[in-house]
Amino acid sequence: MIRFALRGLLGRKLRTALTAVGVVLGVALVSGTYVLTDSISSAFDSIFSENYKNTDAAITGKPAFELSDDSAGVAPSFDQSLLPKVAALPEVDLADGAVAGEAQLIGRDGKAIVFGGAPNLGFSVNPDRPEFNSLALVSGDWPAPDEVVIDTKTAKEKGFAAGDTIGVQARGAVQRMRISGLVEFGAVSSIGGATLAGFELPTAQRLFDKPGKLDQILLTGKDGISPQQLVDAVQKILPEGTQVRTADDQAAEDSAGTAGFLDFFRTFLLVFGGIALFVGSFVIANSLSITIAQRTREFATLRTLGASRRQILGSVVLEALVTGVVSAAVGLFLGLGIATGLFKIFDAAGLTLPNNGLVFRTRTVLVALAVGILVTLLASLRPAWRATRVPPIAAVREGAKLPPGRFHRFRPLGAALLAVGGVALVIAGLFVDGLSTTALLSLLAVGVLLIFIGIALFAARLVKPLAAASDPIARWSVVVLSALAWPLFSLPYWLLRRGFWGPGSGASRAGGFVLGAVLNPILLVIVALMALRRAVTSWQPEWPADFPGVLSDRPAVQIGGQNSRRDPQRTASTAAALMIGLALVTLVATLGAGIIRPFEDAVDKIFSGDYAIAAQNNFSPLPPTVAAAVAAVPGVEAVSSVRGGQGQAFGETINVTAVDTQAPGVLRFDWQGGSQATLGELGRDGAILDEPYATKHNLQVGSKLSMTTVTGATLPLTVRGIFKPPAGGSPFGNVTISTTTFDATNPQPQNLYTFLRMQGGVTAANTAALNSALSSFPNAKAQTREQFKDAQSDGIRSLLNVLYVLLALSVLVSLFGIVNTLVLTVFERTRELGMLRAIGLTRRQVKRMIRHESVITALIGAVIGILLGLGLALLLAARLDEVSFAVPTGQLVIFAVVSVVVGLFAAIWPARRAARLNPLEALQYE
């Protein structure tokens, strides 16, 4: 039976290859995800280890509590006088101090240099201590006072060289500096899109507004002193607000934030790999079911010759195992290309990631192979079990079919129960309070999985009415799209073929060739290859006498519609793969619209000014000097900035914001306690809370609140107001205090946003005046309210585009599923097609019939998928206050059109294959 199974696979190479596509693509994404995240992790590890090469220990500022990575809070700097004290310790061999911050390089066009939203890093360098220097000088010299070294990538991309002058913006206005040299970051080949700017220490301290301060001291111990002994010695003289770690521990601490991000990033991408595999499992199960149904007489003959049901089962499972192994192996190595593509996709979306070469680990190989093989085997179990039920008598019956199972009549009820159970799990996950994150995600994942399976199984009952409703849409879709495709593809194709071997004079043939090449140059290559094939194999192409025709062929269309309803279960299974992909795409689109609309409404509710000042990348904080510059513009009636940082209260880290006395002129709150005047009357100890935080800790207007800042200072605050944040979110933290109090207790304060109200509102003159004031701050820009809303929602749209690209893989898998089903049905209907051709059906009509069937199948999947996606989005919107239920009508229409196009593309090859069948040979096909 093993030899029989392997020969069967070799005899059905095309069907096996099409069946394997789903697994190949799913495994490729899983493999590519691991390669991508392992490569990023390796690059980050190299960056952090490079930072502390030749270092035994590092001293840094110590915040009063653990800072989260999603806020503008920074660890405090410490006094420079600590450096000579540490250097004088008998255990210390060398010591050097440094400062760091954000340094925006300015291009020749006067605009900030940004590569994909990556950070703009600035730091001090000391060429006298090369042991601690992570930069390698490529050309020029190390910086002198008021000079800068920049990275080679920025220099190459923007046309700078050593000796040129470049603008640098840090905490103040832009300054022009001479580029003393070009540098690279150690042995790391790429640090993503980050720009590097290095300065000598006094210049860096001035730029970053840290006079007499240091952010870090790097140490090496004397011979015989271990890193831990060095740490113990330094610990004894450290002042409050500082800490010391070994170099390895400091590197691990620096990488902790990236490790958490990479874990989330890996899980995020693996979800889409799982979706592709889930869709692929439907393709595999459907393909194997069709193949087994077509091999009924073959299995019956084996049973007649003595094969047991167990042997039949083993034969089918073995075929699936071999298919899974080969598919997983191909997908594993295809993952390398997927990883490279993902790097480019995230780069295009503004998330440029560091890359030090692709990393292909053993874990990637084991997981990818195991997942691919397991999914294929699980998908094959039901078809394999069906194969064992073939009775031996079927060997002598013409057109014998597999008998239905004992529980077949309960299938609709079971499918409905699965779907209802899935909905119940999703509702429980969304609306039951107190669930852990793991429990919540597990309930949602299992619930959605059951919904998809239940709907897919129940869809057979919906095929006939949906097919009947889709029939006219499919008919006109095929006609319209064929009409559109005719001048773009068919006509040039016909002209090019005429140029090679068509009738007529040499001049007319040459004219056809030239005209066809002009209309569509890509087809020139295709037809050239066809001509080469003709020359080698003496192939004689034929062209339909009625070419080019795009009108509907009613008999062929009617047969195509009947074929889609002939086997509802097969049509439903084929449509299920596309259904899953479009359901998720619809869910993403609906949630995206539901997030953007409340956000824009929130801006309108909170922002009562005329202009907003934001960074060029729309999200980076800006120094207070930017707000001071625009406040001096004539015509500004009110200007207020929102500071951002972190604090600690009730034992937890919270987001803290600050506003100044002009806030009532440009900001509005939905007050639950307090008034608009409260915004400008916070003083030294006043605080405003958002309603959820106040409710959580049972705080009211007049309540006392003690909050710790990053410097360790304790602020006794009195609640002066409580506001209800709008559904779309707000720029304010849990606690909002006055700017004066915030600046006194937070190092390096920065503005998240700055809002203005100007005399005359938004005018060309006011815009020009603001732009002129911001010319010294190229990293900042002035935006109207509408521009601000669009710019802030661009990040959401970029993320949605990434999600669409990732979900497109599942749609691609479903396309191959439709192709596979159509190819298998062509095999199955070979004699039928031969009969139709014999009674007068033309090749064009055969193609139209297959296309029509394909489009109906795609439309069924689209209708169910879009409705299912809207239903899931409705459940999420009902639970999440930040999301409203907004139907993206335009996008849904596009999805429906795309599904029709998918159906047409899926039918191209099967239709061509069916049209080329020889009627006489087809009539003799077994």
Describe the overall structure.
The chain has 926 residues and is an alpha+beta fold. Among the domains are: 215 residues, no CATH class; 49 residues; 158 residues, no CATH class. The protein has 26 helices and 24 strands. Strands 15, 16, 17, 18, 19, 20, 21, 22, 23 and 24 form a ten-stranded mixed β-sheet that branches. Strands 4, 5, 6, 7, 8, 9, 10 and 11 form an eight-stranded mixed β-sheet that branches. Strand 16 and strand 17 form a beta hairpin. Helix 12 packs across helix 17, helix 17 packs across helix 24 and helix 24 runs antiparallel to helix 25. The two termini are 23 Å apart. About 2% of the residues have low confidence.
Q: Strand tally, please?
A: 24
Can you summarize the main beta sheet? 10 strands, mixed
- Dominant shape: globular
Provide a count of the helices: 26
* Gap between N and C termini: 23 Å
pLDDT < 50 runs, ≥5 residues: 533-552
Helix content: 55-70%
The Cα radius of gyration reads 34 Å
Report the portion of residues in β strands. Answer: 5-15%
The pLDDT mean sits at: 79
List keywords for this structure.
926 residues; alpha+beta; 26 helices; 56% helix
Topology (elements, then pairings):
Layout: H1 2-11, H2 13-51, E1 57-61, E2 78-79, H3 82-87, E3 92-98, E4 100-102, E5 104-106, E6 120-124, E7 135-140, E8 147-151, H4 152-158, E9 165-169, E10 175-185, E11 195-199, H5 201-207, E12 213-214, E13 216-221, H6 227-235, E14 242-246, H7 247-294, H8 296-304, H9 309-348, H10 362-387, H11 411-431, H12 437-458, H13 460-501, H14 506-519, H15 521-537, H16 554-566, H17 568-606, E15 611-615, H18 624-631, E16 636-649, E17 652-659, E18 671-673, E19 686-690, H19 691-696, E20 704-708, E21 714-723, E22 735-738, H20 739-745, E23 751-758, H21 764-773, E24 780-784, H22 785-828, H23 830-838, H24 843-879, H25 889-915, H26 919-923
Parallel strand pairs: 6-11, 8-10, 17-22, 19-21
Antiparallel strand pairs: 1-13, 1-14, 2-12, 3-13, 4-6, 5-9, 7-10, 8-11, 9-10, 15-23, 15-24, 16-17, 16-23, 18-21, 19-22, 20-21
Helix pairs in contact: 1-9, 2-7, 2-9, 2-10, 2-22, 7-10, 7-17, 7-22, 9-10, 11-12, 12-17, 13-14, 13-15, 13-16, 13-17, 13-24, 14-15, 16-24, 17-22, 17-24, 17-25, 22-23, 22-25, 24-25
Family: Belongs to the ABC-4 integral membrane protein family.
Transmembrane segments: 268-292, 312-338, 358-379, 413-432, 438-461, 473-495, 510-532, 575-596, 802-827, 854-878, 890-909
Keywords: Cell membrane, Lipoprotein, Membrane, Transmembrane, Transmembrane helix
